[in-house]
Amino acid sequence: MRMCLTIVGCFLLVHSFAFAQSDTLVIELSNGSSVRYPVVNIARLSFAGTPTSVREHELSNGLLHLFTLRQNYPNPFNPSTTIEYEIPKSGEVVVEVFDLMGRRVRLLSNGEKSPGPHRIQWDSRDDDGSLVSSGTYFCKVQFMEQLIAKKLLLVR
Fold first, then answer.
1. Where are the domains of the chain?
2. How many CB atoms lie within 10 A of CB 37?
3. Mean pLDDT per 10-residue run, the chain (156 residues)?
């Protein structure tokens, strides 16, 4: 019975220790040092695609901000959809729509953007102003060296 209480006591000690460690996000930097962010200070973490690094982040007012692309809405859509993305600092942003063959259908935005959230509409037209057919498209947002893409479904 005494051994059982000791095992339960050890489990509770380790269990508490694990929870105490889970309230901090630790990011290891390439120079070998690390930065700790209390989880309560992180507003939102969003991962899309396959992350290779988290280089573009900013800590302002105690909140961690990352480059994100949200899923368009509505999706499926007809005749237009809203695309939202957020960037952590000022920089060049290119927003494009591609078809399944990888051909660019429409350049929605290309230029310097301020940090924060941005919203853009796609009216299901190509660069020439013609309506595109029903089908699957991809919205690609490039910010600095980072690229995120989302699938868009147009149903006429």
1. 2-64, 66-154
2. 16
3. 40 34 58 63 49 48 74 96 95 97 97 96 98 97 93 96
Q: CA-CA distance, 93 to 69, in Å (whole number)?
A: 12
**Cis previous bond, 74, omega within 30:** yes
- Chain centroid to Cα 148, Å, comes to 8
State whether CATH 2.60.40.4070 applies to domain 66-154: yes
Taking the C-alpha atoms of residue 12 and residue 58, their distance in angstroms, rounded to an integer, is 37
**H runs (alpha helix) in the chain:** 2-21
| Residue 109: closest CA among 138, 87, 141 | 141
Is pTM, for the whole model, over 0.85? Answer: no
